[in-house]
């Protein structure tokens, strides 16, 4: 490495350090908006969950080929599990975002 590139590297390094020292990163979240949209999303998912449960019940009570019926029930149960997991994820993210109003992080090197 030549002297000029060492000097240049040192200047860049100092610039990064001074920039990082004076930087403040502001993270603001509008929890009321997040929780409102989350509750709307959760409500739609709850409705989908109920619909899937009803479809499973109907499939169980239907007549017809047992193998086809079981395949349909298995597919619906898989969809139901996905919806339930999504509901749980939304509820978890909703509770964490509603407890966070705003944070200011001071970044220093």
Give an overview of the whole structure:
There is one protein chain. The chain is mainly alpha-helical and 109 residues long. The chain has a domain at 46-99. The chain has three helices and two strands, in the order H-E-H-H-E. A two-stranded antiparallel sheet has the order 1-2. The protein is elongated, with a radius of gyration of 27 Å. Residues 19-43, 92-102 have a biased composition (Low complexity). Residues 64-75 have a biased composition (Basic and acidic residues).
The assembly state of the depicted protein chains is: single chain
Question: Percent range for helical residues?
Answer: over 70%
Radius of gyration: 27 Å
Number of helices: 3
Number of strands: 2
Structural class: mainly alpha
| Strand arrangement in the largest pleated sheet | 1-2
The topology string of helices and strands comes to HEHHE
Distance between the termini: 25 Å
Largest sheet: 2 strands, antiparallel
Protein name: FlxA-like protein
Region (Disordered): 19-109
Organism: Clostridium acidisoli DSM 12555
InterPro entries: FlxA
List the helices and strands and how they pair.
Blueprint: H1 3-22, E1 24-28, H2 31-61, H3 66-98, E2 102-106
Antiparallel strand pairs: 1-2
Helix pairs in contact: 2-3
Protein name: FlxA-like protein
Biased composition (Basic and acidic residues): 64-75
Region (Disordered): 19-109
């Amino acid at each position: 490495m030549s002297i000029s590139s060492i000097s240049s590297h040192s200047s860049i390094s100092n610039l990064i350090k001074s920039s990082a020292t004076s930087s403040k990163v502001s993270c603001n979240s509008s929890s009321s908006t997040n929780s409102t949209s989350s509750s709307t999303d959760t409500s739609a998912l709850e409705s989908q969950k109920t619909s899937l449960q009803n479809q499973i019940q109907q499939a169980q009570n239907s007549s017809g080929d047992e193998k086809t019926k079981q395949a349909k029930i298995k597919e619906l149960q898989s969809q139901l599990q996905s919806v339930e997991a999504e509901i749980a994820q939304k509820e978890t993210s909703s509770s964490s975002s509603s407890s966070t109003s705003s944070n200011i992080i001071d970044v220093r090197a």
